[in-house]
């Protein structure tokens, strides 16, 4: 694993372009943590280059507005969209509080997802029951006709 790390360190050190550095980091994480899901598209952190350093854009925006973060504090995206770095969507939180919030958001999302599935199942069950009642009524009518 250290050979892998050394190889990526060399690539990182010799690269100036921010996008290329992000790509190197992604490639490293894919090899280092195989099977780990990576977020795609709009819900990814944006990186910028500031004074020859790569920074997370949301952290830079926060620090420009409010000053450096205290140790143990991180920036949270209020609406959950990691690429939405508007100042009014960012809030500084202690790492422990942030972990609790993220866990609660994940659980809340899962509960909503399950509620939707239950509603769909209930609707389906109601439709099946209605169809069964109609078929039963039809069969009773048919039986009455046959008996007469």
Walk me through what this model shows.
By secondary structure, the chain is an alpha+beta fold. The protein has one domain. It has helices at 2-13, 18-32, 57-66, 95-147, and strands at residues 47-50, 53-56, 73-77, 90-94. It has a two-stranded antiparallel sheet with strand order 1-2. The longest helix has 53 residues, at 95-147. The mean pLDDT is 76.
Keywords for this entry:
single chain; 4 helices; 12% strand; 148 residues; two-stranded antiparallel sheet; elongated; two-stranded antiparallel ribbon
Give a summary of the structure in a few sentences.
Helix 1 (2-13) runs antiparallel to helix 2. The radius of gyration is 27 Å and the shape is elongated. With 148 residues, the protein is α+β, with helices and mostly antiparallel strands.
């Amino acid at each position: 694993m250290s050979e892998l790390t050394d190889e990526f360190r060399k690539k990182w050190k010799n690269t100036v372009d921010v996008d290329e550095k992000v790509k190197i980091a992604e490639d490293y994480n894919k090899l280092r943590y195989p099977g780990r899901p990576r977020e795609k598209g709009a819900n990814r952190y944006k990186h910028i280059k500031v004074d020859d350093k790569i920074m997370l854009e949301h952290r830079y925006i926060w620090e420009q507005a409010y000053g450096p973060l205290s140790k143990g504090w991180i920036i949270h995206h209020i609406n959950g969209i990691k690429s939405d770095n508007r100042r009014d969507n960012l809030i500084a939180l202690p790492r422990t509080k942030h972990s609790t919030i993220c866990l609660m958001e994940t659980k809340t999302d899962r509960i909503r997802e399950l509620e939707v599935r239950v509603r769909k199942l209930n609707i389906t069950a109601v439709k099946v029951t209605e169809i069964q009642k109609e078929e039963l009524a039809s069969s009773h009518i048919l039986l009455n006709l046959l008996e007469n």
